[in-house]
Every structure is written in C-alpha cells, then in structure tokens.
Amino acid sequence: MMSAAKFAMCVLALLLAAMTPAFGQGQPAGPIQVKPGAEAGKQSSQQTARFVIPVDVVTLPVAVSDHSNNLVLDLTQKDFQVFEDGKPQPIIHFDQGGDPLAIVLVLETSSRVAPLLPAVQKTGIIFTQMVMAATGEAAVIGYNDQVDVLRPMTTDSDAVLKTIEHVQPGLSGARLYDALNRAEDILEKEPSERRRVIVVMGEKNDKGSETKLGQVLRRAQLDNTSIYTIGLSSTAAEFRKAPERSRPVETGPPGTYPMNPPTGTMETPSTVDEQMGNENSVSFLPLIAWLVQHGANAVGKNALVLASTATGGLHEGTFKDASMQRAMNAIGNDLHGDYLLAYRPPSNTAYGYHNIEVRVAEPSLKIRTRPGYFIAPPTE
C-alpha cells in the first residue's frame, strides 16, 4: 500500500504538470529587438529550429533617390513593397521624416584627428538645427583610448551645441566599436516611439576596442538603430598640423585612410574623398551578413561604410573642412526625408540571417535601406 506522504507527492506532481503551459503559448510574435546574448527560444528537435520573439515589429528607414542622386519625396505607401526572405510583408506603419529622433553623436577625439577638431566643432550648429531639429533629443560621446559620455540624452539643443563646440582631444587610441556599443546602451533606454539614430564622426578603423564590429551591427539591426557616418581623415589632419623642424609632415600610413591612391594618380583631396566616400556598398552585403552572424571584425575594410550600409544609414567621406559641414547637412536632410516603413514578420521564424528587400513602383529609382537582421540560437 502507498503511504499517505507518497500519495500526496504524486498528486502534487500531477497538478504541477497540468498547470505547465506548452512552450511558446501566450508569447507575442515577431523576430527582432532581442538583446544580445538573450535566449530567443529553446532549440527544437526539428531539423530547422523555430522560435517566438518578444517584440514583433521591424522598422525600415528607406531613402529613395533618382538617377541624379536627388531625394524623391513624393511617394506614398502604395508605392512600396517589403519582402523578407523573398516573401511579401504587409506594411503596418508608414511615415516620412515625422517620427521624433533619439540621437547619439559619437565623436572621435584621438590625438590623431586633433587638428580636425576645430572643423568638427563647427558642425555643432548644423547638428542641432538640421539633425536634432525641433523634436529631437541627443547625447554626445567622445572616444579615444577611452569612451566618455560628454553629454547625457537631452532635448536642450543649446547644451548639446556647447558640448560639441568644447570637445577636446585625448590620447591616440580610437575605440570606435566600444563607443558604438555605449551609444546603443543609451538608445536602448529610449521610448519605442522615438527613432533610434547614431551619428559618427571619426576614422574608418578601430583601435583598442573590446567590442567587435559584428556585435555592434547585430545589436543595431535588432534594436532598429540607424547608423550615419562621417569619415575623418588623419591624412587631412596631417596637412593641418604645424610642420616640425626636424622632419617633413607625414601624409601616409599613420592616417585613417592609409591605402594607396588609384593607379596612376596622386593623393589629392579628390582622390582621398573618392576612396573614403564612394565605395560600392552593395558589394558589402555578403560581408555584413557574415559579420553579423559571427560577431566578428572586418580587417582592412571601412568600418564606417559597413555600419551605415548594415543599418540603412548614410556614409559621407570628407577631406576639406567645409565638407564636414556639408556632410552633416546631408545627414540631416536624409534623416528628415527618409520614408519610415514597418512590418510584422511571421510569428514563427527560423534562427539565422533574414534578408530584407524594399521595392518601389518605379524601378529606375534607387533605394537605400537596411539589408536584414540576424537571430542567434541560444547556444551561441
């Protein structure tokens, strides 16, 4: 005969089993904005793992331009189609430059770009008026050998302007990826109705970060963050540095863009700008997918172009002082002229990289948007 204690334990076990819900029941659908390292779901015994994600909207900034690179600003929702992995997705939100912005301005303050900082400071008024505009809020981060929050998130554009105008140089490191990671920490706390944006002014390469570029890009895609970049050249900084009596000014390898000019040409502002700003972003798409999946770095590539291409942002190369101001103005125009689309992906989606494509009714128009997102299995 079973004792009373054993009988009670059996009854309790049966009650607990009956109360336990099946995996995935009652969970909201959608595949993005999972925090890095968080479990998106449990591994299935099926050949293709499936999962349920707690946030269900993918947001797409979409810039549309004509053959002359002029922004096209008169399209409507019916002109757009969105595809995920080749399958059409209903557009559930459509706007044009109307969502309030939460922006983190990330400035390189290393000694290598110190001669350029006066020109960087002059972009402050354009950032506050054209990028923040009337409804935006912004924080400012400086990075060299360390990463510093120079101004916490605020709607006070005068305080942001003062911070930019008084930025000071530090040591020779350039912890770009750590600075981007810190910016993502700040934006993660922002309310969902604000569009998340990072604007970077710095060199194309990282020096000294613990964070990997692929980790930054994966997180930005999951958090619906757009990264806009302005490339600084320490070759340009060398031209502005007072020459030393003992040796000539160097304009070669120490620079941010230490590659040789095109064959048969001299290194001039125009050729440097070409190398900095006119790279074919389409050719980066397979590399971006690989970086995001593996959380790795891309040695020898322009990290700023990769970051912008991976998140649907704009990259601007610079060489002359005035072009920094033009670049910041272009970013402001782009941000407030973008179309903002959103869709709800399938509620039961496989782990892995998912490609995104946006099409418009007029095939001759050029489209810039984020190329996809990646969901890692919980074992990664």
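That was protein one. Protein two is written in the same sequence-then-structure order:
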Amino acid sequence: MTLLPRLVEPRLRHALERGKSVLLLGPRQTGKTTLLERLKPDVLLNLLRPDVRQRYERAPQLLGAELDALSTRARGRRPLVALDEVQRVPELMDVVQDLIDRRVAQFVLTGSSARKLRRGTGVNLLPGRLVPLRLDPLSLAERVPSAAQDALVYGSLPGIALDESDAAREQDLRAYVTLYLEEEVRAEALVRRLGTFARFLQLAALESGGISHFRGIAQELGVAHTTVAGYYEILEDCLIAERIDPLCESRTRKKLTKSPRFLFFDLGVRRAAAEEGPRPSARELGSLFEQYVGLELLRAMRQTIRPLRLRFWRDPDGPEVDWIVEHGHALLPVEVKWTETPDHADARHVRTFLAEYPRAHAGVIVCRTPRRFTIEPGITAVPWQEIPDLVAGMP
C-alpha cells in the first residue's frame, strides 16, 4: 500500500508561515512524531522520554531560560520548538504562553490525550494562541485504496496498515491495546481499578457503532452507570473513541433516540480491544463497514474549515439512517450497505428521512458499487472510495 502525503501538513505549515503556534492532537501512532521531524524544528523535545520529562517536571521554568538563550543566538529569528506529547508535563503550558506572548519562539505542541490539558487543575489551554489541528489514522485521501475489507480488519494506523505481514499487524494491534492500558491508563492513574476498566474497554469495543447502553455495561461490570459514563469520557479524552450524538428534533416523531453512539478511532484497534479474530462474518462485515464510513466522514470533515457535524437518526419504531452530515440548515442522510447493488428497499429509510426533513434535499447510499448510479429521484448509490467527495460537496 502506498502512503500519500498527510492532509494536515499543508495546513500546519501555513499556520507556521502566518507566525502562529499549533496544537496537534492525535491518537498514539498516527504519525505525529514523524510529522514533527519533517518540519525540522530548531528544538524537538519528546516528553515520553523519562530523562526529558523528569527534567522539566522538576523545573518547568528551565524551558523558558533555555529558549530565551536560543532566541538571543538566533538574532531576531524566532526558533521553532516542538514539544511532543506535551500532556505529560502540562505545567509547561504556562511557560509556553509566556514565550509566545513575548514572541521568543513558535511552537508545535503534540498530544495523544486531551485529558490532562483539559481537566488538570490550573492547566492553561492558551486560548486564542494556538491553532488546533487533528491527526487521525490514514484517511482515504492519504492512501492508495486497497480492498475495503483490509481496513475493516486491520485499521488505518500508518505503521500497521503499511505492513505486509498479517501476523505482524495482528501482533502490533494487540500491543497497542496493552500499551494504552499500561501507559495512558495505569501510568496516568486515570482509574482506580485497571482490571474493571480493561473489561469495560472490551465491552465498549464490542458495542462500538451501536447505541450506547451505559446501564447494561454497568450491570455487566458491577459498577454504577455514572462510572461507565466516566470511562467513556476517558476514551474520548484519550482520543480512543468518537462520540456521535443523534438528530432528535422532528416535527412528527416523538420517540427518536437520544442516546449517543461511540466509534473507536481505528477499526483494527477496536477489534484487538474486543479480542476478536481477523475473519469477521458476513453480518459483522456490514456493521464494520458502517463504522468505517462514519470514521471516514469524520476524517474528511476535519479537513475543511466549515462547521460540519456528524450525527445519526433513529426511531425505535422502525426507520433509521446510519449517518447524517449536518452543515448549518443543510442535512445529508447517508445510509451504508455492504453490497454492490443497493435497491429501492435499501433506500426506504433515506426516503422516509427526506420526507420528514425538508432541509435535506438528497440522500446517498454508500456501498461497494464501482460507479455511482441513481436508485430513485434524490437518492444515489455512491462508491465508498468517494466518501471525501460527499463532504466536499455539502452546500
């Protein structure tokens, strides 16, 4: 598989050219460190290294003194400083703010967890000083497409997706889950009982893409449902899960689902966390394909500056639409089918949605057809490879 340029890199470089500093968030192993190295910063500090981290934990102000000295030697040119995994020493954020305000240096800060930055006592998020960007696993636009099933089983993390050995990919995915539990959860003391959280992680992975049932998981684990809600919050903050809220405003329907869905950020990691094998059944492929389309819509939406939002629509009495792309008053219903030839029966829920919401003028069924075709007026079958075009074409 060929790796194409990362879509976020031009936006990152443009921000730096404008004199801005950047906060680049993304899960582990999505390529943040590689991207930093391509920028060739004057200083690159990897805060995952114990010797580097402990130096600045003991004395965060050292960073300011060192960069003041570097700036003096640079003779008026602001050096570019990269702090990799900055959430490991959140106290550095105050130092960074001072250096930005005094125009001593430009920064690219990366992190694989927003939890400490967002929730730590007194932590400074530098409002208005950092351009926020996101680095996801490889999107459709960043890789020469292979068979859809490959991404459903092994995911899209660069180092794993590009490996030609299925055995090696399997081993790396299992190691990823262990690394997450040990370094993000145990080392950061995010929960008191790691065993309970590990079991929750498996159940959440098995439930990925479905309507979330906090009370059911809580009963299975023997904990309060508020504890489960807190566990999901950890997954969100650590960028492991994406929360998708429903569209529940309607003129006529009173029972629309109000509970969210959660998507694991990568389907290979999801499978490893769920402790599933690499050969999904035909029924499982349909569910995985639906999740894959949702993730690709999210990744495409992050590459635009427009305020797009991904939602879903479900009436417990029958009709449901897998994904809704929302932009202002415009809605695009997206149904997902693991077939090459969707028909009128497959379009029935989209048809219902279009009748219910006048601000939705057309709908699509994303499937495995090799070419677009019209199923009926206003509803088009679209190849899964064209998912980025759906987002780009939103009014």
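The chain has a mean pLDDT of 92. Keep this in mind for the problem set.
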